[in-house]
Amino acid sequence: MSSTGLLLKAQNDYVVINNGVVEITWTNPGGIIKGIKYKGIDNLLEKKNKDLNGGFWDLNWSEPSSTKTRGKFDTIQGTDLQVIVENEEQIELSFTRMWSSEVQGEQVPLYIDRRFVVFRDVPGFYSYAIFEHTKDMPAFHLNTTRIAFMLNKEKFHYMVITDDRQRFMPSAEDRLPGRGEPLAYPEAVLLVDPIEPEFKGEVDDKYQYSLENKDNQVHGWICFDPPVGFWQITPSNEFRTGGPFKQDLTSHVNPTTLAIFLTSHYAGTELLVKFETGEEWKKVLGPVFTYFNSVSDKEMALSLWDDAKRQMNEEVQSWPYSFPTSEEFPKCGQRGIVRGRLLVQDRYLSKENLPGKAASVGLAAPGDAGSWQRENKGYQFWTMTDEDGCFVIKNIRAGSYNLYGVVPGFIGDYKYEVVITLTEGCDIELGEIVYEPPRDGPTLWEIGIPDRSAAEFYIPDPNPKYINKLYLTQDKFRQYGLWERYAELYPENDLVYTVGVSDYQKDWFFAQVNREIGDNVYQSTTWQIKFKIDNVDQGGLYTLRVALAASNHAELQVRINDPTADPPLLSTGEIGGDNAIARHAIHGIYWLFTVTIPGSLLLGGENTIFLTQAKTANTFQGIMYDYIRLEGPSCQNGNL
């Protein structure tokens, strides 16, 4: 037993750690957190929910034949507890679960080691896990992995996601039949008779509170009596999947707080981790930090958010942590650095190379350009370039990677073609590297901004029946039911955009969706882009670039001057499954298509491009455009 200030007490069914500030109780050997005692609150966690209570690691998995993103839910009950470290300053617990063929089909085929680390006088705890698939294990799909906390319903009512996204929240009871009315999918509920009248007429949907990985560093809840905060801090994204723009859940009604490691949210089945029989794989998820804070003055309760952000910054500066005992987690001196300068070469914009400023540059598993947004088994390491395009990526695990990049204002994905192999302690200088974004000719016209988002396009006001008050003046795309507004704005004829006359901020709807013409009967939509070319090069080749910010089981068809041309110039086939339209996002997975248009198909004067979304099985099949550009025939020396 440690000295006073950090005490470990193991019983038959429970193990308790008291560090002088907080007392945490786990089931033994299950590793489920049943109690967190802090600042006069007997338990920060809920224990009266019908199904899920306390705090726990969980996962969702499927057999390899599954085509779904959901399967069997597992709260990962451990079978063995070991005390890895126990001294005056630190205790580290390990809850493990083995796998054998006796449980095949009933238990996920993984060896799982969940760790919890508690320090003396620190108001919180760290958690990480090692997941391993060995050569004697069968194939399966790992759909989701996370840590979930079900907070005390009587105490936590105010949720904070960001500086601008924080509010008092309705209760879980408000979502039940009688008080709540289910909408187009189970997560979205219209509050018709909430306990607190202020929430009446609002929509509650956990997907309205999602964040991109790069921004998802701290979120949580505040209790006002006594003034206590409960925060989930993620100091690094290296163990998350899908890259910096991948979006995921944060906190939501119950009250619930999540630490997400992998999901298919806003991506689809491509982000499922699919294991073959006998495939050897091991990954460390975390550590993440669950942080508690308090103030004595109830009037200062909201300041707990500022303190949580301060603590988050401290955790980020401390990464990689020095305390994890697992050899699978490399410390600072065991990691490497890659640095360089990213330039952009576009001869139609500048004779000189341009600095790739504010670009996202990262290392991920070797693959094609852009493959990082679908990568799900390895680690990723990202940073942003400065005004000169310079970057330094630190704390990289040893291994082999490709370097990838995304530059705002330019379409496509950069890839450094040489595989970069990092060893412990290395510092690799790449020097100047040059991205040549797709370009065949001068820009004749463009619609939108190439930033992988549809945020610049027209986002309608929501139906007054479906309001979230948090988004009345910001992030309107997060409101429920905006897909229904298209048919209201265009009841018979589809959108027509005239280059040089129309304004994409007002005249280009943010998502091309179906039109409902009957009860669950939908009609495809065809948008038109009208433009003039005075002098057509009949023997030349024109190029249409179509960048999509999202696609959900959609098929984009492109035609020129003949809306019935068969075959079309482009048919993508059914692509995507990011569900960004239904889940209130402004982007999902990025797609880029190039359409070659022979000059013989163009007319002197007015021309029309027809964009058809051809899939009509349901209301959420659709696409979001990022950017569209028509290029003229190539000029050998550019147009400068």
From TrEMBL:
Where is it localised?
Answer: Secreted
* Primary residence: secreted
Please list the residue ranges annotated as the Rhamnogalacturonan lyase domain: 357-429, 443-630
The record's section on InterPro entries has: Carb-bd-like_fold, Gal_mutarotase_sf_dom, Galactose-bd-like_sf, GH-type_carb-bd, Polysacch_Lyase_4, RG-lyase_II, RG-lyase_III, Rhamnogal_lyase
Coiled-coil intervals: none
The UniProt entry, under PANTHER family, shows: RHAMNOGALACTURONAN ENDOLYASE, RHAMNOGALACTURONATE LYASE FAMILY PROTEIN
Q: What is the name listed in the Swiss-Prot or TrEMBL entry for this protein?
A: rhamnogalacturonan endolyase
What species was this sequence derived from?
Solanum pinnatisectum
